[in-house]
Fold this protein.
Amino acid sequence: MLRSTPVYSALVLLGLVWLPAASAGPIIQSQISEYVQIKANAPFGQTFTAVDEHITRIEVYLDDYNNQYYNGSTILRLYEGDEIAGEPFFVDGQTVGLDSQGPVSFNTLPVVLTVGQTYTFEVDRFNQRWGAAINQHQFENGDPIPGRVDYGGGHAIFNGQAAPHYDLAFRVIPLVVGDANVDGLVDGTDYVYWAINFGDNPADDPPGAPSNGDLNYDGRVDGTDYVVWALAYQNAQAALAVPEPQTLSLAWGAGTCLVLSVTARRRRRRVN
């Protein structure tokens, strides 16, 4: 049994009640509930099968139970395939200040996944400060951020080896279609992002899609991207009519400061 191995310390969590997955939550395989120390089980991570092509972030539930030692940095490495092997195609290092426990979010935009492909993320391989929760439901109660509960085909990785009966408490947040500023909403501000970049070469407007107005990721900012936004806006507002560009005065009003700011930056760039 995993809990009997001497290479890690675990704290059994008591009193946790399973709730139906009415909102976002981690994948569950109805095994044990506990914490494991990351360093003792390095390389340490989780595999999952992608069901979304574009994602905004990966969240993992970590416990800072050794906060009197070491720094608060942790690193996410994302690999293609079902193991920690080869070169990662995405690396995100960040410093987080958890006094006790909570979800840690790794911003992955603009990572593009292949639907049906298995991926492996490595939480950290060196830092002994952090512990990670296994098979918990911390992302469900009172969390307004939507996410997936159907990332199947996954399992935890301890000591670089598959642990098929365990999963970390994690979730992958898909990108909302039409959400240019990646705030989880489709509104007039997203239209402004498209409008100020209309006709531009997306390569000239970092940080890339969708923030450069390329909402369908085809390498162009054109009318098709407006259609993507308009349909998403219609669905988001539950409206019968999609507002045309010339009628979006409210959107332009809300985004006036953004337009002026971005326009000024673009003018300076062209002058330089």
